[in-house]
Design goal:
two-stranded antiparallel sheet; alpha+beta; 64% helix
Length: 66
C-alpha cells in the first residue's frame, strides 16, 4: 500500500508540474468538454479529457502488467 501511495503522489506531482505545458497542447479544452459560463459563474467539466486520460492510463497499466 505504501508503494501505491508513493507512486500516486509522484504521478500527481508530475501532472501538476506539467499542467501549463499540457494546457498549451490543448489538453483540457477538447471538443466535448462542458463549459457553462454565466455572469461571474463558471462551471467546467472536462468529460472528454477525463476519458482520454483514463484510456491512456489503462493502456500504460496494461502494458506494464504484461
Amino acid at each position: 500500500m505504501r508503494t501505491v501511495l508513493i507512486v500516486a503522489g509522484a504521478i500527481l506531482l508530475f501532472v501538476g508540474l506539467a499542467w501549463p505545458v499540457l494546457t498549451r497542447l490543448g489538453l483540457g479544452r477538447l471538443p466535448g468538454d462542458i463549459v457553462v459560463a454565466r455572469g461571474n459563474f463558471r462551471f467546467y467539466f472536462p468529460i472528454v479529457t477525463s476519458l482520454l486520460i483514463s484510456a491512456v492510463l489503462t493502456l500504460v497499466v496494461w502494458l506494464f502488467r504484461r
